Amino acid sequence: MDLHLDSVTVRRGDFVLGPISYRMRSEGSKMIAVVGPNGAGKSTLLDAIAGLVPLDMGTITINGKLVSSLPAHRRGIGYVLQRPYLFANMSVEKNVLYGAADSGYAAGMMSTMGIAHLGQRRPQTLSGGEQQRVSIARALAMKPSMLLLDEPFSHLDPEMQEELGERLGELIKTEGVSAIYVTHSFDALYAMADMVLFIDGGRLCETVTGSVSTIDGRPRTRRFAELLGYRNFIRCSVVQSAGGVLSLAAGDLRLEGLGDAPVGSSVLLALRPEDITISMTSRARASQRNIVQARVTELRRMGPLMRLRLRHEDSGTELLALITSGSLVSLGVNEGSMVYAIFKTAAAHVIQG
Questions:
Q1: Domains in the chain with CATH codes
Q2: DSSP 239-275
């Protein structure tokens, strides 16, 4: 797969996407996840690749073919949107056959997606999950050069999201088609993504390629870190740097994190709430180098978990931690309790600036 975006720019009223330049070359199928806050331009980028909006500047090339000068129907791109846009006057079978490479392949795709028995039904008689299965089958039945997915499961229940996400991931691999997937789901991001593009304010701010641990562990900006689930950001100064491990100071609080920054510089230490262990003692395993004594200032239920707001009284540093309700009871933690927040150096990532 060879995707080349060269200075892609789209203007929609006061909003400008780009210029965005990005190239992805790989053997076999790849899943590119596009993440960013609402209004960042993620869907606009997919619309531009699909040919649904004109470019004001730049070019798009797929597998060596310049497609930005072609109308949408000649680009060979499958597109699955948040809501399934199906032809209400056609049966499920005819919807899938519309634009299909051949009828036999379309029938096979219907079987794979588990909708063969729905062939003569009309879309409006189907459930939301069934309609989205039809949309995916139709997009893949055309044997696209690339598949675009704009949060295709966002309106489905969690169980259906997981089931269709797994099936789609398997199909992309077996059919050998690369996909660009707009998502706000951490589960989808970590389960499916080979690469991540972070878009904010119409600009491509970060790109990450590699394993889940690589995607998870290298946020270079606070905005990207927030999208990856980081909620604790501690302003620190770098005291010492050795082999990618930074010794940090936040007032009189001493911490360690992973990163690269010069001694004396001001940085943010980013940490997820779920990476903090709560203890009533300061004893920790050897890998848990960060131990912060703090007071519990707030307890709040977050589904099956409890969120603790903590404050280190000398430095004023605040932390958010998540623990199970059972752990909260067994530890005897209440608002006002003094506890130890313990976390590994490997869980704390330094962001410059």
A1: 2-225 (3.40.50.300), 230-352 (2.40.50.100)
A2: EEEETTEEEEEETTEEEEEE----TT-EEEEEE-GGG
- pLDDT, one tens digit per residue, over 43-74 is 999 999 999 999 999 999 999 999 999 999 99
Q: Token digits for 268?
A: 């943010």
pTM given for the model: 0.82
Can you say whether the dihedral through the CA atoms of 114, 119, 125, 131 is positive or negative?
positive
Residue 201 tokens read as: 């304010």
Which tokens sit at 324? 């199970």
Instruction: Kindly report the backbone phi and psi dihedral angles of residue 202, in degrees, each rounded to the nearest multiple of 5, phi listed first.
Output: 80, 0
CA distance linking residue 198 with residue 182, whole number of Å: 10
What is the helix (H) or strand (E) element at residue 173, kind and residue range?
helix 158-175
Assign 187 a pLDDT band (cuts: 50, 70, 90).
Answer: low
pLDDT above 90 covers a percentage of the chain that reads 69
